[in-house]
Amino acid sequence: MVTVSGYAVREAADGHSFVTLELNGGCEFVQSMQTGKFYATVRKCSIPSTFDERFAKSLVGSNFPGTVVRVPCEPYEYTIKDTGEVITLSYNYQYLPEGAEKDVLAHEFAEQ
């Protein structure tokens, strides 16, 4: 199950605006590579929509079947907000609807 935690109005390369939904997966526990201690986190992603801002706002708090999964991608730099440290990541998170195959997402990356 994923929860719509928010929305954002973004601008496409051609200048038109569109609305994205921000999705949160369930809580999970991850072991820190630095300290070895466990911490709680939530996988997050955003997906484009055809909704207007008013309708997107009405969806905040709604639950939908599916999960947020980690998918390989081209390496990119990411700045950790709390520390300012710049790291290189080679994955992102994407929404996977219930019943869809995770291999489809990885396959899309391989074809690029």
Provide a compact summary of the structure.
The chain has 2 helices and 6 strands, in the order E-E-E-H-E-E-E-H. With 112 residues, it is an alpha+beta fold. Strand 1 and strand 2 form a beta hairpin.
By helix and strand content, what is the structural category? alpha+beta
What is the overall silhouette?
globular
- The low-confidence parts are none
* Element pattern in H and E: EEEHEEEH
Task: Explain the overall architecture.
The chain has two helices and six strands. The chain is α+β, with helices and mostly antiparallel strands. The protein has a four-stranded antiparallel β-sheet. Strand 5 and strand 6 form a beta hairpin. 8% of the residues are buried. The model has no long low-confidence stretch (mean pLDDT 89).
Keywords:
15% helix; two-stranded antiparallel ribbon; 112 residues; 6 strands; four-stranded antiparallel beta sheet; single chain; alpha+beta
